[in-house]
């Protein structure tokens, strides 16, 4: 062992060393405290740093407890070993050096045996020690070694090996300052370790106050182990009805999931809610390692949630390619439908996850499979959501762009509903039909006009869309735009030649009557100034505005002088007692 100055009689400031006696990762012999929390023992060795000739720190002649020990004579020596460890802090005087001295344990600055056996480090160390003891000017060492030593001195706040006034490293004052700096660093490290122990002890005391569910929620594996060892039920549920394993899986606590499964947690436990399994939770969260762990423990890869989703469905919706591959290799059903009728491919398409869709198609997913109720396909869903890259991928993979949903909407019509211009452009470039398909109820332009998507409407008109095509209600695109109050769209359609006075067959409604019915004064004003006929329709614009209670619009129509004899006829014929004209308003 490295002795610390006790018991001998005289001699320089050096120590005897027996590296073979060092026990890695164990507490020093005689230490009264156990290894720190967490079971990490300290593979430490005693170091004494001398900076001046004379007795070792702690003083004293022969014998001496702790720091007392042999009186030192001769030149200054710095026994700076390549491993720091236990810094003895015992006081001087009396007795022989003992392993029972009080110690401060420091986990920093440790080099293992491999470092000590390194020939470069060994050479540097020997040169450092011999030069310090013999007073050699270290400015003559090789540049690499000198650079390392200068870095050490700079860290200690000393500076270069040779100062401006010619001091060499072997100067006792230099050594004293270095010794003091290193000693202070070790003291600070020891104090930090003591604080860490105190904090860990405090935290350990709090664990006992938590429930098993709380410990699981915090991901505290050690606390969970302790509570389970005390007999707690691994299959208990949280107050919200969630199983502990499901909680761990949804939070991504892999080690905790391992512990719970090792304690025989039910791998299919859905909790009191009966919604999702742990495998679904892990797949939904993107935790591929936990997914693999659960599959190893025989989790049902095709189990369905209360909404009909499987682990594969969740993984596809989340875009987790690695999990999708793992589940497919484990036998996941690639064509399962959830309660919306969506397959995993449809969920991936709806979310725009191209790479997931690519994997699914490689495993044989049906590209044109559609939902039973709404007849949606992967392509129509991607178009409705505006996922341009997904639409391009599906078209290249052979998706049918003329497939119709339950509303008889094609992929182009779905894109038009939400105004996805670039998706519509791609579909048109791929040959999509710009006008109303057979058996459909409305045209792409009607849908764009209804939504007020001006740029898209302009694209459709440019590609040949019919301005006068009517939907199942008999409305033209202009009527739809007026009914929804889209003034800019009305202006575009009129500029492109739309018929301002077109009427529906059954009720003779016009764009103006529809605008007045909705109370859209600005659109009505625009249409009137553009030449709309106010006398058309079974119900005139004034009648529509009055019936719906749009007082300001009624005032506008009257003030504009557009009502003519309609005011008296309307009120006289339908509201007796108010035939006296404007006073009735």
UniProtKB/TrEMBL annotation:
ANK repeat start and end residues: 274-306, 307-339, 340-372, 374-406, 407-439, 440-472, 473-505, 537-569
Cross-referenced Pfam families = Ank_2 (PF12796)
* Stretch list, region Disordered: 1-72
Instruction: List, alphabetically, the SMART domains matched.
Output: ANK
Q: Which GO terms describe its biological process?
A: innate immune response
UniProt-listed InterPro entries = Ankyrin-KH/SAM_domain, Ankyrin_rpt, Ankyrin_rpt-contain_sf
Superkingdom of origin: Eukaryota
Any single GO CC term annotated in Swiss-Prot or TrEMBL for this entry: cytoplasm
Keywords in alphabetical order, please: ANK repeat, Repeat
Q: Where is the composition biased (Gly residues)?
A: 1-14, 56-72
Annotated protein name in UniProt: Ankyrin repeat and KH domain containing 1
Q: What is the lineage of its organism?
A: Eukaryota, Metazoa, Chordata, Craniata, Vertebrata
